Amino acid sequence: MTRTSRASARTAKSVEERILTIPNALSFVRLLLVPVFLWLVMGPKWDELALIVLMVSGITDYLDGKLARSLNQTSKIGAILDPVADRFFILAVVIGLGYRDIIPWWLAVILPLRDVFLFSLVPFLRTRGYSSLPVHFLGKAATASLLYAFPLLLLGDATGTVADLANVFGWAFTVWGVALYWWGGILYAFQVRRLMATTTRVQRS
């Protein structure tokens, strides 16, 4: 390996290991907003502020991925932090909406149950030297659908024409989001199965 290639490898590694980046900061902000949303919905029931929190979460979710690519600020911690922030926010929202009886409890259970299912696959991945696999586009589409659905369902917890329309569109996005969420999870499980069949076990020292 030449001196130039070694320098390039070190640079690439340092880029991957960066922590203080704009996309990571946005993901961290999204994590901080999780307890804020829960308090607003379950405590004083300030739905207007809760809607603003949801919109900010959706905007930061869009921006962190876009900025990571456009500013060349992708990193290992970002690849973990972004989906973790999404999972925690989805969990917080279904708990809050379930608590308010805006969504049935079976729906509040079936969404995080998919993440429990995927987490159970991690030990199998580790036997092949992986901690995770690339996120499937269906998972991204499902998250986007749910981030549209939740504000609409919260807005629909009122009376009037606007609330009725929000409720209809909110449930439409919810149905699509849940279906895509689980479909993406099943495809992820097939990816793990294919990896197990085509790669050898990593020997632990």
From TrEMBL:
<keyword id="KW-0472">Membrane</keyword>
<keyword id="KW-0444">Lipid biosynthesis</keyword>
<dbReference type="Pfam" id="PF01066">
    <property type="entry name" value="CDP-OH_P_transf"/>
</dbReference>
<keyword id="KW-0812">Transmembrane</keyword>
<dbReference type="GO" id="GO:0043337">
    <property type="term" value="F:cardiolipin synthase (CMP-forming)"/>
</dbReference>
<keyword id="KW-0808">Transferase</keyword>
<dbReference type="InterPro" id="IPR000462">
    <property type="entry name" value="CDP-OH_P_trans"/>
</dbReference>
<feature type="transmembrane region" description="Helical">
    <location>
        <begin position="21"/>
        <end position="42"/>
    </location>
</feature>
<keyword id="KW-0443">Lipid metabolism</keyword>
<dbReference type="InterPro" id="IPR048254">
    <property type="entry name" value="CDP_ALCOHOL_P_TRANSF_CS"/>
</dbReference>
<dbReference type="InterPro" id="IPR050324">
    <property type="entry name" value="CDP-alcohol_PTase-I"/>
</dbReference>
<comment type="similarity">
    <text>Belongs to the CDP-alcohol phosphatidyltransferase class-I family.</text>
</comment>
<protein>
    <submittedName>
        <fullName>Cardiolipin synthase</fullName>
        <ecNumber>2.7.8.41</ecNumber>
    </submittedName>
</protein>
<dbReference type="InterPro" id="IPR043130">
    <property type="entry name" value="CDP-OH_PTrfase_TM_dom"/>
</dbReference>
<keyword id="KW-1208">Phospholipid metabolism</keyword>
<keyword id="KW-1133">Transmembrane helix</keyword>
<feature type="transmembrane region" description="Helical">
    <location>
        <begin position="105"/>
        <end position="125"/>
    </location>
</feature>
<keyword id="KW-0594">Phospholipid biosynthesis</keyword>
<feature type="transmembrane region" description="Helical">
    <location>
        <begin position="137"/>
        <end position="156"/>
    </location>
</feature>
<feature type="transmembrane region" description="Helical">
    <location>
        <begin position="168"/>
        <end position="190"/>
    </location>
</feature>
<dbReference type="InterPro" id="IPR004570">
    <property type="entry name" value="Phosphatidylglycerol_P_synth"/>
</dbReference>
